[in-house]
């Protein structure tokens, strides 16, 4: 609106000037007079217009905003990855694998000799040699030696070995447990589990004797096989295998002389072992050796007490015990 008014005023002023120029004096050139008058008038008009623009607040120029600086990325320092540390494996450490003979709470008649065998794995970094020994630790000793050699060779880290000890069941009924550990040539005592401090053990139950019947019964012997053991426990073809057979007389009469037969595989007789006799509630461990010319992962072996049936027994049906034996290729 203000711009329109300003233009109208300028137009009126220019019209007045042009009309008045017709009455100017004639001295000099009329054209020069007109030009001089127009120039003066134009300067005044433009000067007034500029002053009007300043007074009315019309901006004379558009200011250019200053450029905003572009931020730069700041790198965040990264921490170096943690350095992995290797935990050294202890020199002496073992792991229990299984009970080869006499699992926990196995029944063993009072006074019976038996062989307990564990299978252990060398989980340490040192090789076990014949200088390493089996050590009785605590509990019921059951006739075990305080110290005994368990290998004549070497057991490398990661390898397994069967460790055996000869024991005798106590004469009183009850539950008995004996604990064992190993000892190195440097007299370092160690055992199983991650801390190498736990013992391994044998735990048996000696049952109460069969009550004597009140009625008068003719006393008789009762022979049967309680256990068949093999050394080595997992033989290979061509190995000389030692066979141990535990015979027990559970009757109430002493037994005279009799034979024990052991069959290596089915009808193949391995050996015949003579026994001088067995007292009532007592027994023996007899043995023989055998070499398997072939191999099979499921040989059915068998032991028979009083194979010739020369002893009159109260139970003639329990004289035989069968057991599977794995023989691997050499």
Describe what you observe in this structure.
It is a single chain. This protein is mainly beta and 330 residues long. It has 3 domains: 1-20 and 33-50; 89-209, Sandwich (Immunoglobulin-like), CATH 2.60.40; 219-330, Immunoglobulin-like (Sandwich). The chain contains 2 helices and 16 strands. It has helices spanning 2-20, 30-56; strands at 94-99, 106-107, 113-122, 133-139, 147-149, 160-168, 174-183, 189-190, 200-206, 223-231, 240-249, 258-265, 268-275, 282-291, 296-305, 320-327. Strands 2, 4, 5, 7, 8 and 9 form a 6-stranded mixed beta sheet that branches. Strands 13-12-15-16 form a 4-stranded antiparallel beta sheet, with no helix packed on it. A 3-stranded antiparallel beta sheet has the order 1-3-6, with no helix packed on it. The longest helix is centred in the N-terminal third of the chain and has 27 residues, at 30-56.
Q: Which helices and strands, and how do they pair?
A:
Layout: H1 2-20, H2 30-56, E1 94-99, E2 106-107, E3 113-122, E4 133-139, E5 147-149, E6 160-168, E7 174-183, E8 189-190, E9 200-206, E10 223-231, E11 240-249, E12 258-265, E13 268-275, E14 282-291, E15 296-305, E16 320-327
Parallel strand pairs: 2-9
Antiparallel strand pairs: 1-3, 3-6, 4-5, 4-7, 7-8, 7-9, 10-11, 11-14, 12-13, 12-15, 15-16
Helix pairs in contact: 1-2
Quick structural overview:
The protein is mainly β. Helix content is 14%, strand content 36%. The strands form 4 sheets. Strands 2, 4, 5, 7, 8 and 9 form a 6-stranded mixed sheet that branches. Strands 13-12-15-16 form a 4-stranded antiparallel sheet, with no helix packed on it.
């Amino acid at each position: 609106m203000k711009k329109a008014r300003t233009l109208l005023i300028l137009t009126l002023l220019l019209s007045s000037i042009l009309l008045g120029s017709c009455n100017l004096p004639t001295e000099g050139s009329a054209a020069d007079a007109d030009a001089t008058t127009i120039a003066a008038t134009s300067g005044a008009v433009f000067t007034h217009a500029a002053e009007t623009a300043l007074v009315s607040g019309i901006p004379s120029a558009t200011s250019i905003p200053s450029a905003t600086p572009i931020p730069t990325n700041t790198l965040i320092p990264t921490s170096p990855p943690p350095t992995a540390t290797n935990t050294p494996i202890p020199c002496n450490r073992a792991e229990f694998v299984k009970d080869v003979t006499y699992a926990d709470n196995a029944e063993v008649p009072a006074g019976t000799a038996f062989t307990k065998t564990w299978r252990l794995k060398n989980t340490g970094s040192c090789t076990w040699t014949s200088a390493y020994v089996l050590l009785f630790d605590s509990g019921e000793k059951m006739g075990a030696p305080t110290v005994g050699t368990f290998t004549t060779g070497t057991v490398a880290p990661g390898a397994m070995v069967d460790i055996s000890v000869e024991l005798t069941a106590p004469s009183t009924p009850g539950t008995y447990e004996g604990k064992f550990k190993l000892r190195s040539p440097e007299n370092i005592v160690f055992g199983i589990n991650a801390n190498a401090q736990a013992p391994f053990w044998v735990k048996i139950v000696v049952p109460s004797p069969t009550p004597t019947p009140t009625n008068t019964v003719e006393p008789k012997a009762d022979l049967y096989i309680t256990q068949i053991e093999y050394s080595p426990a997992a033989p290979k073809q061509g190995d000389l295998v030692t066979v141990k057979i535990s015979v027990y007389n559970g009757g109430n009469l002493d037994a005279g002389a009799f034979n024990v037969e052991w069959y290596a595989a089915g009808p193949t007789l391995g050996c015949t072992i003579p026994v001088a006799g067995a007292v009532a509630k007592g027994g023996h461990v007899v043995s023989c050796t055998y070499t398997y010319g072939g191999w099979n992962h499921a040989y059915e072996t068998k032991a028979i007490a009083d194979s010739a049936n020369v002893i009159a027994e109260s139970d003639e049906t329990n004289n035989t015990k069968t057991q599977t034996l794995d023989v691997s290729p050499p």
